[in-house]
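Slide 14.
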Amino acid sequence: MNTETYDDIFSAALSLSPSSKVMLAEHLLKSLDDDKQEEIEKIWSEEAEKRVEQIEQGEIKTISKDEVFQQLNLKRK
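Slide 15: predicted structure.
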């Protein structure tokens, strides 16, 4: 693709509404490699299921978002 074509496409993309930009970005990312995306989603799904099981079995303790932000603020100081 030549620079002029790229610039035209980029300019057109910038003129889109925010929601259309999001849709375009999602489609472009998805087009990179659907197989890898499916694999990533599978891995995240398995990880989420594992964490739910750990919580239900009492293996790990959850904390509130307020505690998370409090701990982050302490680390920044």
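Speaker note: The chain has two domains: 1-32, 33-77.
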